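pinning this so it doesn't scroll away 📌
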Amino acid sequence: MARKPAHEQFDTLRAIQDCAFDLFGRYGYDGVSIGTISTAAKLSKGALYWHFDSKEALFLACLKRLHSLFDTYIFDRMREPDADPVAAVALLFQGTAQLLQDPLMRNGGAGYWLIPDSPETAMLAAEQRAFEARSAQTIRDVLARGTAMGRFDLGDDLDDMSRAIISVVVTVILPLRDQSPDTANRTLRVLTRTLFRAYGSKGSIPQL
């Protein structure tokens, strides 16, 4: 069979990725089949397998796409070396609000945390754990820098707070996706103020 022109291959790949991203985000790994994805993308299974040799490979591509969205809206911006720690923590919640408005997240992404415990999905679970650890380290670095500057008073809670914040960010993605942008922003502002009032030094609460 002759290969499709490059632009047609790209269009097919994008259709597969967009449909798979949405379906996996809603229903998780076990809740979606290759047949379901090919039907949603209006393609044959053969066309799908031309680009991805297994469901695991397709899920992994979608998972990395999700992580890239988190990095674009939140963590890459927090990692900027000259970022003010207070502004960086505020950005964590502001970026989450922006992430929720991305068209790819219109149906949420909770399904990416529904990875079954099996040998065939071990690589997927490892990729997810690595992302969470990397993100928590970014938050820890910002909080540690802020603590050293006297902007936060975390005491022995630094590591626990880093893990707690990444858990909160992940958790709010699902319930807030069905809220209006204004409601989501108000909720995230409350979370930000709560964090700064509990652990921020006097005058460190940012203008939101």
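📌 and the second one:
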Amino acid sequence: MDGISTAAKQRGVHWDGAVNAWRIAGSVYRMGRREWLTEAGWQQMYDAGIRTVIDLRTAREQQPREVDPAVSAQATARFDIVRCPTEDPENKEFTERFGPYLKDPAHYADYVRLFPDRLAVVFKAIAAATGGVVVHCAAGRDRSGVVAVMLQNLAGASDEEIVRGYQQGMRGINERHRYHRAPHAHDAFLEEEALEAMLAIRTASLLVFAHSINTAAFLAANGVSEAEIGAVRTKLGSRAG
């Protein structure tokens, strides 16, 4: 665990107000809601080389909350904010399988099957992005988690790196829920014993998904060009060919 803790610290980023902000690989990062960033956090993100923010949420999730810090338009104007919702919440199979939102790696494969075109658009946006890229959803755990695993697969990441990425996201939003009420009753803060038990189950499901996905083949089959896949790999500092 000490090695994982050290690696987690190395991959974590500290932009003021950011929740669940981690580097996936190269110049590509993930996090929770961008509205949690303070003005100083946006500046820190800019100083880190980030120029593109890709929002995976649906339109109805993008409403401000009372607890969000006040941020000037100038703070965000230097970023290209690209909206790429990865799901259709009105899709009947989506609601039957996942409930109100994706929350378990056991469902990642079905999620990819249901929304391949939408996920392909995310990768096209990463390929076209200027500067460093942040991909975010609401919690910074599952939608960004699906994209993170696919990116790690493309970059040739090890199982250890993939597991660490998911567990960081799970722990990060759980810690947020310690002090801030979760938006859904079935996503409340978990004490360490319960969290570890859930992580064990979800990590096993995560690896099943990670071993089943061939991101390059998936992207090629869904309209992402070889040049675009190459551009994504370049941003990841990919070890894959």
